[in-house]
Amino acid sequence: MSVDSRIAAITQRLIERSKPTREAYLERVRKAAAQSVHRSVLGCGNLAHGFAVCSPAEKQALAGDVVPNLGIITSYNDMLSAHQPFETYPAMIREAAREAGGVAQVAGGVPAMCDGVTQGQPGMELSLFSRDLIAMAAGVGLSHNMFDSTVYLGVCDKIVPGLMIAAMTFGHLPAVFIPAGPMTTGLPNDEKARVRQLFAEGKVGRDELLAAESKSYHGPGTCTFYGTANSNQMLMEIMGFHLPGASFINPGTPLRDALTREATKRALAITALGNEFTPAGEMIDERSIVNGVIGLHATGGSTNHTMHLVAMARAGGIQLTWADIAELSDIIPLLARVYPNGLADVNHFHAAGGMGFLISQLLKQGLLHDDVRTVFGHGLSAYAIDVRLGENGTVERLPAPETSGDPKVLSTVDQPFQASGGLRMLSGNLGKAVIKISAVKPERHIIEAPAKIFHDQSELQAAFKDGTLTGNFVAVVRFQGPKANGMPELHKLTTVLGILQDRGQMVALITDGRMSGASGKVPSAIHMTPEAVDGGPIAKIREGDMIRLDAIAGTIDVINTADDFADRLPVSIDLSANEFGMGRELFAPFRAATGPADQGASVFFH
């Protein structure tokens, strides 16, 4: 089925807007690819250093220009659950590469930090910038020019976006992303949230809270809620960087290992040495990016990707905007209910039919571009499958089921959970912002209330403990943007504001910071741009100003002021406390160079 005419029109506008930068990008990619096998440009001393620790057979193979060499970029560390499974992947990949007649080497490692560990801590102020640092670290590993193809081992919040920026920067090389999968289901996410709320109210102690958290985050793999990490996996599959069905298979299972071996062999099959050359920069185009945005809307994915997708697209010369994302949101129905947008976790989502069912539903209604290239070949319809372990430990793929395994978790295009996507853009006299409404009750889509001003999330938490957060209000938490302090997630506000909302108060949040990919039931206008430190309108708000947040109309404004709001001078505050400690001093150049949130909050693209 051909793609919906509205999606086709948005895609065509994106193509036209991107033409100058996309053409320049493709010219660079094709020039690099024209050099053929890249080891051939290395001198004998260069090459000897590059394969000094290889076996004699591998040295002989790499000395010529006919055996492909696979570069592995890994985010392995053994502290973080999502990345610990990657410890055994290089050995598995090397073995699979030998079986396919190739060689594989770990080209480099990249840092992987966890927002769950750093929530509310100074280290969170490094988190967003770690994305661009990851891209740079991957670039260092690949700069040795020893490789014909690449595989990227990454899962979580900033890691996959950083790795994709690297994959597009080295767009002359094929790139396959290999995930580790989610941990098995532990304590239900709604029960975890209940205990968190009881702790915030002082009704349970730290021991009870830690016990609940430990039962929720309990083993290898990604967290099971549908935050940024699992949104990453959805994106890599729907954009064609994963093999079909690879995203949500648990670590340490035979099928997970079979998919990793298959991905390795596929990465070697699509090099310039074969007949299916698929350089990443040519493979990912405007249609692929639009498919990613559509997947984000259809699943109620992470708000963080309103920044990450913009930066990822720009790495390939594609000028995606918040306006594109907003327009697609009006077209794409919400088909998944995964926590925090429901009670299920990603394991339940996968069991209900997962990515294969979701993609098949969207394709049937022309809500995805099928005519795209992927690492698996041509056409996204190859991803409308059910994956399982076949005979002899191989991967078997069957057509996606016609019906959902659990209609409460995964629905059809004909009976969506909501007619439009879960992400909206807001604009008005306060600037531009993003809001996630897939878990916000309809009666809270419009909030009109006086402002309460805070310059740190701890200030709001202290006000809550003091009992001063009474009545209806809009919490304005400002000076939290990328230039101010690295744009930390303000996840700890979710519980506090949720408690007040449950008490019957009408509350909302406005911030130039971020909320977690798991943010949910409280209406939150986030990523406000221009940010306060740049003199944005959010810095002009005064205590008691009436603010109207209208997620239906897509507006965010200060109203009924006694003066002309536009003529006010923005306030400024002392930000020196953000400059030192936990490595923050090392990231001063990033804070100085970063662009605004609507352009990806990147040091590269603005």
UniProtKB/TrEMBL annotation:
Domain called Dihydroxy-acid/6-phosphogluconate dehydratase C-terminal: residue spans: 408-601
Domain Dihydroxy-acid/6-phosphogluconate dehydratase N-terminal: 68-381
GO BP annotations listed: D-gluconate metabolic process; Entner-Doudoroff pathway through 6-phosphogluconate
Keywords: 4Fe-4S, Carbohydrate metabolism, Gluconate utilization, Iron, Iron-sulfur, Lyase, Metal-binding
Catalytic activity: 6-phospho-D-gluconate = 2-dehydro-3-deoxy-6-phospho-D-gluconate + H2O
Short name of one Pfam family: ILV_EDD_C
KW Lyase (keyword) present: yes
Name of the protein in question: Phosphogluconate dehydratase
Annotated source species: Xaviernesmea oryzae
Lineage of the organism: Bacteria, Pseudomonadati, Pseudomonadota, Alphaproteobacteria, Hyphomicrobiales
